[in-house]
Amino acid sequence: PVDRSPEIQEARLKLPILAEEQVIMEAINENPIVVICGETGSGKTTQVPQFLYEAGYTSSNGIIGITEPRRVAAVSMSQRVAKEMNLSHRVVSYQIRYEGNVTDETQIKFMTDGVLLKEIQKDFLLSKYKVVIIDEAHERSMYTDILIGLLSRIVPLREKVRMPLKLIVMSATLRVEDFTENNRLFSVTPPVIQVDARQFPVTVHFNKKTPLDDYSGECFRKVCKIHRMLPSGGILVFLTGQAEVHSLCRRLRKAFPFQKNNIDDDKEESVEEIRKFKKSRKRKKTTALPQIDLDNYSVVPVDEGDEDRDAETDDDIAGSDVDLDLGDGDSEEDSSLPLYVLPLYSLLAPEKQAKVFRPPPPGTRLCVVATNVAETSLTIPGIKYVVDCGKVKKRFYDKITGVSSFRVTWISQASANQRAGRAGRTEPGHCYRLYSSAVFMDFEKFSAPEITNRPVEDLILQMKALNIEKVINFPFPTPPPAEALAAAEELLIALGALKELKEQQAAKLSCPISPLGRVMATFPVAPRYAKMLALSKQHDCLPYTITIVSAMTVRELFEEFDRPAVSEEETAKLKGKKARLLQIQKIWAGQGALQKLGDLMVMLGAVGACEYAGCTPKFCEENGLRYKAMLEVRRLRGQLTTAVNSACADTGLYVDPKMKPPTEAQATYLRQIVLAGLGDHLARRVQAEELLDEKWKNAYKTALLDDPVFIHPSSVLFKQLPEFVVYQEIVETTKLYMRGVSAVEPE
Ligand code: ADP
Ligand code: MG
What we know:
Layout: H1 6-13, H2 21-30, E1 33-38, H3 44-54, E2 63-68, H4 71-85, E3 92-95, E4 108-112, H5 113-122, E5 129-134, H6 142-160, E6 166-171, H7 177-180, E7 192-195, E8 202-206, H8 215-229, E9 234-238, H9 242-255, H10 259-286, H11 307-313, E10 339-344, H12 350-354, E11 365-370, H13 373-376, E12 383-388, E13 391-397, E14 404-410, H14 413-421, E15 429-433, H15 437-442, H16 457-465, H17 482-494, H18 515-521, H19 527-535, H20 542-554, H21 568-589, H22 592-596, H23 598-612, H24 617-622, H25 627-647, H26 664-677, E16 682-685, E17 700-702, E18 710-711, E19 724-732, E20 736-743
Parallel strand pairs: 1-6, 1-7, 2-4, 2-5, 3-4, 5-6, 8-15, 9-11, 9-12, 10-11, 12-15, 18-20
Antiparallel strand pairs: 13-14, 16-17, 16-19, 19-20
Helix pairs in contact: 3-4, 5-6, 8-9, 16-17, 16-18, 18-19, 19-20, 19-26, 20-23, 20-25, 21-23
This protein binds adenosine-5'-diphosphate and magnesium ion.
Adenosine-5'-diphosphate binds next to helix 3 and helix 4.
């Protein structure tokens, strides 16, 4: 029996899903697979695990697992459910890429979808689970799609061994036909339970005109108007990224000051954070070897499905201290009513995220400025007005070359309707769309599933490690494009992760995994980087490769200085900082072979110097490093060290905080290792005689692209222009730029 508090009980009774408990439980008892559809906020995520728990699904050795595409949701939902059930975090726990609080007593486990995928590699039958719930299936994250495909096969297998597993797929009320009407996936169509949404009407207001680019300013003006002119009720604003969210928060706080919340509170928290860092550092110091239990600490494929994370790191922090809105006519103070402004995005610290669920201080109006995490993963109570900029920030990949860029694009109609729906949870509401109805009519109906528009080599390697050789026959809810599959298979063969067998060449895309590939699949990084790790045992290079791979995986170690400054003083400060960073980078990249390692040597130097200094916020600030990124590099180094130790027994490897720079010989060897992983990312400087066109000046030619590519100005090799280089990635901004560049001499 669950002992809930009266307030919780009362709140639960208001949720539409509670009326369906019996119907849902009967369907689950009688069917191995059930689909539950219900409007966001109807109570799926928080209540279904409780129904199962109360129906005894965890009583005889077996637990309930729930996957979420976003880390925010996994953490916050486990906390909420623990609280509702009055159970400890030892029983209702979570596990995400880098952390978790799972124990032997855990009975309900929230996790990111990537975590469960890794668990399938260790135990294909998922024997510790009685029930697996795939949540937010409508988001169509790549790992969620794959999990559904795999589980469609695991469920019958579990039936065979007489240890039945229940699969529950939960989704907002969006296109579920890809799951239910796909008989390659489920040969028997699973029952679909619709949870009646007690949705109040939402009046949608379109702008007459669509602002060309300043949708942020338009949001500001709209919120001001709502706040000054409309009756009470919370406001939820949808923007695209973390920097935008912060900037709008500051602007609104200035316009409608609310003393306690504004400044004091944030300061308090940062003091608190620093104190915590200090404490955790003390603890770290006593353990030289990071103790990470791999069984309890699932390693996860790169880019664990959390597109927010990706979309936000590129401008992370950059804007957070700068006020971009001085001298704006609108922002004069207004004393009418304080606005209680809160930011919400994926990377926000959990304590700060939790604030949006608490009622605002009396006499204030709540205004949450969010990225699209608020679209379906989290339901904020008391929202009556939604302001929708109509945009989302996404990472785009070229299907063949893998060239990526961040782009802000229009959302789909389905997303726009989800966003509008957030206004009608507790009473009739209003949604202000900052674009015209004509523009809306041009939106795609639905956003494309993630698997159809990103490179899939990491996914294919994971699948091959599960002995799924004919990837093409896999029951994908939506298959990736054939050319992406072919490109992935080709790359994996080139890296030696797959065996290329003659007789199988006719039947393309069915090469089995090689022993090297198996080792590579155990590393939680992209296949190219996994190859580098697998090669590094010789010449004592492993610690360096691990560090370089960690740095390349975390990305964006350095602060961005090319941001708009608000004052001359700041311009000077930024300039000074940038000059200093360039100087340090040169020192880090050293001489001779070290220098040729280029940007990768800079990354190595940055991590080395930072750890040597104890990885303090102060050191990072002084040297233009992003503190958060450095902490993440530290965790990943620990994790990779453990993974390498268990893949290649007794290397005796540990993470040395006082790692010396590599020797000349090691640096030379490191360049070969890097070339082995990035062999297809080779670029050759355009020769003088080929220089027919001005646009090829200082340009490089790659195998994949017809257009010229350039070394990014932030690279230490920018001026040196070596003849051959390999690059980590090509990013398209004003030109095609190579980033993470290192010089090589191909044989
Ligand atoms: P769904 O999964 O169907 O979208 P949820 O189970 O996430 O719905 O949410 C049900 C209700 O629980 C919502 O009204 C939401 O506001 C509330 N809720 C969720 N998390 C919290 C929290 N941490 N604190 C307070 N209320 C919460
Ligand atoms: Mg949910």
